[in-house]
Design goal:
Strand content: 25-35%
CATH class: Alpha Beta
CATH architecture: Roll
Helix content: 10-25%
Structural class: mainly beta
Distance between the termini: 34 Å
CATH superfamily: Methylpurine-DNA glycosylase (MPG)
Order of helices and strands: HHEEEEEHEEE
Number of domains: 1
């Protein structure tokens, strides 16, 4: 693994961050165990201009981190049982985030990493990681040891009710860990 991604990586347009996260490595140091996975699928959410985004209606206690410094984690619970990990993008004050949808297990990952709920379970990510600074600490995203040339697929996002046809889902084409579109 190479170095941790700097804040400037995240302080860019959300779509660029979503595409460029493919192939990067999520690292979660939990006690004496380090779990890692290669990001193979993401979705971009475009803040207050995107009716499918949590930030669409503006800042709330739940979404305040989305309007803050880029490079922080936005973790929330869906269906009362699954955590989802998002990465804050854009400049401070402009909401934008990238949902990490799937990983390819690298080390110490148990279970499947395809689908946002399975991914967080496999990496041990919970609501305790809400607001975590991904540029330092126990939960980070790093450059891969080698830079593969990735064939990137693009499609509409999965599992949403608004803006369902927007092509904001990015994935490593042909990777077996990518979620299956319905």
């Amino acid at each position: 693994m190479r170095g941790i991604l700097k804040r400037s990586f995240y302080s860019r347009p959300t779509i660029d961050v979503a595409r460029d996260l493919l192939g990067k490595i999520i690292v979660h140091r939990d006690g004496d165990q380090t779990r890692t996975g290669r990001i193979v699928e993401t979705e971009a959410y475009l803040g207050t201009s995107d009716p499918a985004a949590h930030a669409y209606r503006g800042a709330t206690p739940r979404t305040r981190v989305l309007f803050g410094h880029p490079g922080h984690a936005y973790v929330y619970l869906i269906y009362g049982m699954y955590h989802c990990l998002n990465v804050v993008a854009e400049e401070e004050g402009t909401a934008g985030c990238v949902l990490i949808r799937a990983i390819e297990p690298v080390a110490n990952v148990t279970g499947s990493g395809n689908g946002p709920g399975r991914l967080t379970r496999a990496l041990g990510i919970t609501l305790e990681h809400y607001g975590a600074d991904l540029t330092q600490g126990n939960l980070t995203i790093r450059e891969a040891a080698k830079r593969d040339q990735l064939e990137i697929g693009i499609s509409p996002r999965i599992g949403i009710r608004e803006a369902v046809d927007w092509p904001l889902r990015f994935f490593v084409a042909g990777n077996s860990h990518v979620s299956r579109a319905r």
